[in-house]
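User: For documentation purposes, I need each entry recorded in a consistent format: the amino acid sequence on its own, followed directly by the corresponding structure tokens. There are two entries in this batch. Please keep commentary to a minimum and don't merge the entries.

Assistant: Recorded as requested. Entry 1:
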Amino acid sequence: MAENTDPSLDPEDTDPVPSAADDEALDSADTDTGDAAPADDEAGPEADGPTPADPEPTGDGDVKEWMSIAKRATEVVGKIDLDKVASHDEDEVGKVGKVIDALDSLERGEHVEYVPGVDEDDEPVHQIDPEEQRRADMLRVLEPSFADRLGRVYFTESEPHAKSLQFVPHRDGLPEFLFCFAPDHSPIEGAHGVFLSDHGVFAAVIAEPIAEHRWRIMKSMPFETVDELVAIIKGLIEQP
């Protein structure tokens, strides 16, 4: 067989003819390299299009505000006695227009702290206990004459001698009383006081050491009138 001497026909130097399968592989490779321009819908952050919206406010403040308004509206309406309105009570009917005006203001978001003629003190007047009244009346009568002695007792071991009853650490032996007054003396070493109770006036003493003794009643006197009461107290507080 003749030897092939044409270099162009050398099998090692001849490029093979690309097949259809090779063309498809090349097309696929071009696509995978990512050299192609990005599609419009895959554009970066600078591309036109909607951006995420800022978070909506929670509205907690608005909710609390409207809850407060609703509560106030309920309070205002509750001030009306519907039974009295039905019976044409003049004062109660007069409240209705004021309440309606207040509700209109609340609906506009206004603060309505006070509605004249509606937000009045609905509580009944405090009924004073007769004993409390009697005690207050007595205090008004006695205070001008015994202001510097009121609430005090006489202590032999201290200067000044008239000191608050609070310096005695206990009330053992003392019956219930309203007021006490410091006399000018003490018949024993210790403390001496004149006491006013619901039943009369009494003088009591407690010996030293005070923490180890009880109060003892020395004298007790009833009274009928305020003038008699004042006279008894003066007689007991003066030095004999």
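Entry 2:
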Amino acid sequence: MIIKPGEWLFISTMKCATNTLYKALTEPEVGGLWAGGKNFHALPRAYVAGKKGTSVCLRLAPLHWTCCRNPYSRAVSIWASTCLNKENTERYDAKRWIQKQGGDPADFADFARHVLARPDAKLRVPFLWRDQCSWQDQFIHDVVLKVENIEAEIAELLGLELELPQENTSPHADWKSYYIDPEIREIVREWGWADFKRFEYEP
């Protein structure tokens, strides 16, 4: 989370321009602070005293905002950062799980079949593969901006003219190329159905 005390709180949603926004919002001219660690002084006392897992439901600023992304695009990005990024050692269990099912972690279709379509998958950190609604419903948020139009929507919401080059881009092709197989499109459609409805993306 990034907070500008007394004004707004940005709550990240995984694989929704998080690194790009963290960098831009903490620039000195913007004035955002990391909402934690040495910046606890910037947060209400209730947050500091709150128990782990409950403090996220408190209001920390007049405006709470977050982002969403087309679920088809987001699914591909989650797969790439999980299975193609060799530096991401935290998610090795997903690769091993796919292999145990006879699949190839480097194949998005197998990631969809064995992770996104399998809520029973034995994974150490299953929350990483949640849809956006279940992720965001943990928090208080007033506004959800779309990654696809993020610069214009931030300008309208906060009055900030930001240039947002992509940070930490995952190594994959255009997301549309992964949905030639109707089976895979249907798996991701079902996985992200709540997101398609709430955020008004075309399923």
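Summary note for entry 2:
The mean pLDDT is 85.
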